[in-house]
Description:
Structural class: alpha+beta
Low-confidence stretches: 1-6, 117-122
Strand content: 35-45%
Number of strands: 9
Mean pLDDT: 82
Distance between the termini: 43 Å
Largest sheet: 7 strands, antiparallel
Number of helices: 2
Order of helices and strands: HEEEEEEEEEH
Amino acid sequence: METLNVESDDVLKQLLHEAFDSQIPNFGSYNLVAAAGSSGSAGLKVIGFRREPAEIILCPLNPADLQPTERAVSVNNTNVSHVALVLDGGYEVGTSTGRVYRFNVPARLSLNIPSPTGETTGPGASGILAQDEDAAEFAEFMNEFMDRLDPTVNP
Length: 155
């Protein structure tokens, strides 16, 4: 049986929220999940999502310091080219500018975020990020988002 360090989980979630909040001014209206990217902007990202208006915000981060690796990207019905569930259980999201992002949102994600000074104390944290419910909610959101984009699905 796996033991989850709740204190580390809370610290990891707080650090990821802060990284997202630093890029997105109206962060309060988004649910957040951590994702592992495999293309577009590979690596760690925080994804904000909301149902009304339907939108996802992809925030690629450097896992060593949670600083942005590039500007956050908003994807909504004005700039989305496609959204798909891929064979490995992840998602692919394309924009009208030609950017394609492929990522997974696991229920559990192992993270090791060092403190800025490299010391063992400070704002760094490591452990398993437990986002079981958030990942399930994100999957439900993505299904709804894909349905909205597919003209063959009844509203």
